[in-house]
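Why does this matter for the project? Reviewers at the last site visit asked to see concrete outputs rather than summary tables. In response, this paragraph embeds two records directly. Each consists of the residue sequence and, immediately after it, the corresponding structure tokens. Nothing has been edited or filtered.
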Amino acid sequence: MSCGGVYEKDYFYQLADEYGIMIWQDFMFACSLLSNGYRADIFYDRYPTNIEFLKNVQDEVVYQVGRLNHHPSIVIWSGNNENELIIRYWPFSTNVDRVIHEADYRLLYVFLIRAIVQQLDQSRPFIASSPSNGVESEQDENYIAQNPNDSKYGDVHYYNYTVDSWNPSVYPIARFLSETGVQSLPSLESWLQVTNDSAEWNYSSRLMLHRQHHPDGMEQML
């Protein structure tokens, strides 16, 4: 379950248990420090680490782990999505800024969330972030690897909109490809649920461009 801001309802996990669907369960933290990767006019600062916020996170994690840890469909807990990757490559203006951000990162995901999960559920692995080098990051790099997306360790995220996606050789040979994908346009049947105006079915229409949130998304698909 990706970190889209919502922990799914119990019924979702019950169905996953019944049908043998394995779930990678993120906690709801993602893409902190990210700006021009999605929209250049929005800056996502790091998550705070004041006492009030940490207490709120503690309550959230305790509740969700207690609610979900009996579901066999959940195979791993992940503290966040891509924050280790971003903090490693973020161009901090000073070394002091980097030290502060890295300390806050470890406080939130390692010393708080990881500690709670390991106390409440010792039956599953926990990784601080995805992608990460897994145990390699923990033991040798203090949870912030030099290359968190290294295909030799842990899990990998892969996006490339310029290659032939039908060619299997373009994909990384990783231990686990935990996130990948390409865009596609909706079917006509889907569009008809939104509008009957055939002018809006064109890829360059006002509505189509309004619904496109990925930079250069149309050009990359064409």
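We now turn to the second protein, recorded in exactly the same manner.
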Amino acid sequence: MVKVGIFGCYRGAVFAQLAPLCGAKITAVFDKNETMVDRVKEHAQDYKICKSFEELLESDIEAVVLTNYFTEHAPYAIKALKAGKHVFSETMSNITLAEGVELCEAVEESGKIYAFAENYPFMKSCLELKRVYEKGEIGRVLYGEGEYVHPIECDEMNQLAPGTRHWRNWLPSTYYCTHALAPLMYMTGTTPKTVIARSIFAPDKSKHTAMHNADATAIMLIQMDNGSLFRTTGWARHYSHCVWYRLGCTNGSTETVRPDPDKKYMVNNQIFDSEWHDEGNAEGAGHGGGDFGIFSDFINAIEKNEKPAFDVYSAVTMAAVGILAWRSVLDHGKEMIIPDYKDKTTREKLKFDTLSPFPDENGNADIPCCSNPDYKPTEEDLAYAEEIWKKNGLYREDLI
């Protein structure tokens, strides 16, 4: 059993539940919000409740699950790696190109396993598309599509983003790109090389929230290393809810079937039922079995000392797609080259690239988080959001 610690118990409770099914044991947990620690109780026993991340690292854990805030993954991953721990990090791996350099160097120096916890590639139908592609019968991929459409109503959004400085209120439309992109990469074994992006300004989608980003979605055109072109979304907020993937290849095509990609898929316009093959305990796990698949992959990588499905280079490459796609949006769709983080000369050029759309402790951001840089929530929007925060016991002075 691999001894695992969790930082971030709201989402981390999912992995506490899956741990015994994956060959792991939760032995320590930490959350900045102590009320969240109780979420683990239902799924784990005999674990230490830590008062700091440092205390978590000093416990008997061999690996750490990072399910903390979106903007904080790289710094805590680096701390864990330097402490000799394996790392399982949720999206995104880094929010600046410079953080990507630091993260790669920390992984290389530690010799530990770093796994990017992108779960959508392990959903049932995504695995079916991967099997179809790897058989070779439909040929080489020429064109791929990935959509992650997740509209959220204002009251729910306010509960998910309690505070004007909460990261979700500053999230550019390209940054949350891995749910759409990672499955296509996993199916085809291809890597992004360039990206072009445009974003759709729709201020009505952010009404009654504290969001400083009022883009409904972004569309990214990504050139892959085999010459193929992928069209993907970031976090799309238009209706209706949808997760969908397609591969157009030299001899055929395959895609998931709307509206429920977990049940059916198509090959050359013929519909098939999606089935589990040798995925063990995936049935019933969250995100269509994806949570089990990616966590099990991480534990296996530790036990066998082998590369996980998404290593640090995959992680920082996908982060670079989101980061540079946003710069493309701000520069009217200019093509951006995705850096090769394995190349140390390239890393030197990125070490000081700390541009970020997320505000610092003084509320200042380097670049806009909205395609309309003049947009900001109105006083009425903020008053409504604050009312929801207080009503649900989420109001925090440190995030206002």
